[in-house]
Amino acid sequence: MLVKYINDNAISNKYFNATSCLNLEFEQSKMYKGRTYLLLGNFEKTYSLISRFEIGIRVIFKTLFSVGFGLFFESVREDWKSFWNGRKKQVIYSSSPFLATKILVKQGNATTQYKLGVMYLEGKGTIQSHQKAAKYFQLAANQNHAAAQNNLGLLYANGWGIAQSDQEAVKYYQLAAKQGNASAQCRLGDLYVHGRGVSQSYQKSFEYYQLAAKQGNASAQCKLGAMYAEGLGVPQSDQEAVEYFQLAANQNHAAAQYCLGVFYAHGRGVTQSDQKALEYCQLAANQGIATAQYSLGLMYAHGHCVPQSDQEAVKYYQLAANQNHTIAQRNLGLMYKNGQGVAQSDQEAVKYFQLAANQGDLTAQHNLEVMNENGQNIT
Prior knowledge:
Blueprint: E1 2-6, E2 29-32, E3 35-46, H1 49-68, H2 74-85, E4 87-94, H3 97-105, H4 110-122, H5 130-141, H6 146-158, H7 166-178, H8 182-194, H9 202-214, H10 218-230, H11 238-249, H12 254-266, H13 274-286, H14 290-302, H15 310-321, H16 326-338, H17 346-358, H18 362-373
């Protein structure tokens, strides 16, 4: 029996004719030359009498060559076996999880169908394809696989690889939610908040968020915090809001960290603390929350909670502006106009004022008018 190891760049179609890699006769994974290989499958080739005769001649010459050099290669042993038995068994291991998963899918296993769907959804090991992701999620969902139902709902909600349908999204989210899938429960809560595919209901959204939050879903915990903060579907409570924001922030949820920073800044539900506000705002900004980046820019510009620094202000305004944050774009325009923290540039000032003005910022529009009147509107 030959064992063959193939990598991601050396795939032959013949390997897809392999028999089930669920065969317990073989190890499901092996280490080879420092890499992990998964069992892709095994197949058996049968030789005719003529082929066996050709193998016999070849193996005699190989044997003579091997013995002459004091060696006896593994391939020679396998050829002798093929000659006597009339067949050869080969086991294929691949460093590509995608290929191994694709072989397993043929067995109709729901978990493997789901995994292959995820690979297509994320483009891992293969070219990204929402259509193929939908196909395999559907196969697994038909077998009541909760995670696949949840992901199929996501595809329907966004129209990825499938016709957009809020009703179908609700259908599959509900199927998954009934099986306790926290992500589906949270997403179902989102649909109730916005009345997509269902009648709008803060009470229903709260119920689903709570189910997901109890399972530790950080997104649901953050959204519960927001509902308590605004009194949506529940009595308003800053203390409850802080509790849920904290739970989510502890799991590194960026939006929750920013919200917690805001509550510390204003002393809502907690003892006011500029230091805590800065700490959580920084955590959120580091994860790319544009509003947090803008807030840090404002703090540095005015020296609030941090040493005043125009350079740092520009840095954070720029990060937020790159994410289309309107006021950050306007403020960045002012920094360029006045040469604060950056080299003075009317051209850059106009650029950022224009970006903010395009989003309806009246102050930016006014600044452009003033620059135009002064002959500074550089295009």
